[in-house]
Amino acid sequence: MKLPGVTVSSGTPGKTPDGAKDGTAPDCGASPEAAVSEFSALVREHQSMVFSIALHYLHDRESAEEVAQDVFLQLYRQKDRLSGPGHVTAWLRRVACHRSIDYARSHRLDPKIGLEELAEPASEERPGDPMLREKLRKLILSLSEKARMVMILRYQEDLDPEEIARELEMPVSTVKSHLQRSLAMLREKFGRALGGSLG
Amino acid sequence: MSRLDDELSNELKKALRREEPPVGFEARLMARLSSESKRETGLARWFKLALPRFPMMSRLAFASVLCLMVVAGVHYERERQERVEGEAAKAKLMQALRVTGTELQAMREKVMASSGDRAAGE
User: Fold this and answer.
1) Between chains, do A13 and B28 touch, taking CB under 8 Å as contact?
2) Is the pTM of this model over 0.80?
3) Distance CA B37, CA B75 (A)
4) How does pLDDT run across A147-175, given as a tens digit for each residue?
5) Residue A108, min C-alpha distance to chain B (Å)
6) Contact A76 B10 (CB under 8 A)
7) Which residues does chain B have within 8 Å of residue A72's beta carbon, measured at their own beta carbons?
8) Structural contact between residues A29 and A1, judged by C-beta atoms closer than 8 angstroms
9) ipTM value for the complex
10) Which of A181, B55, B85, B112 is deepest in the core (most CB within 10 A)?
11) Cβ–Cβ under 8 Å, residues A183 and B8
12) Helices A145-155 and A161-168 sit at what angle, rounded to 10 degrees?
């Protein structure tokens, strides 16, 4: 049965300007070929979001692909329960977050790099420098699991604290506190390099 | 917000921008989907595919009926066991009464016989 008021957007990979809040589950009552085709369209539309959440959280492409595939397989199994525009995107984002956290816990993927091990950015590193971005990623990896996911949802998905609180099922005040503490740490670590360039 | 914060925010957005998964991601996913679908057979397939098609109320009603059947079954089994135990106790009692009756009859015959001998002797 076709879900009312629901269409599958073919969508381009990557983030849409409105935060990729369109899309829906594949039509469960259609022929198997049509269902698979709709599912493929959903995968293409959302794969970069799901993969990137896992990649930025785990900092390992192989593990991120494994998590992303598990998320989409779960979507396929539960497709009948999802309906309405935005439902699939929100569901995928939430499941990607929780699966990444679970994966890191079960595989004991603790961050290998502590804050003290990261060298201060060299004075020649400037905004836009790929090395600087890689160090930022490593610093984010050194954050606690919740703080790390808050940063990913804030800066990758461009969600506001209220939306992040809903996704991670935590109070808004906790989200804001994670953001403030993480930004303070990053500001302290990279202030010199960034400030120098703004001179 | 200071320029430093703006710059940090921009750098974070760039560092955490979305990335495309490795080439062949979709093909590998579809291959996994296909192999997992083939594994789902028999009862597992029924539970996975058919059960979610029933509305929640139907599933709750089915679960309630199942619970009632289990409770009724346990109750019936307990009653049956009590009935069997009662029958066994009754059979034992009847057996005991029969034995007692036979012995009483034997005693009575002995008493009668001895009182008959005494009367004949006098």
Assistant:
1) no
2) no
3) 42
4) 999 999 999 999 999 999 999 999 999 99
5) 23
6) no
7) 29
8) yes
9) 0.72
10) A181
11) yes
12) 130
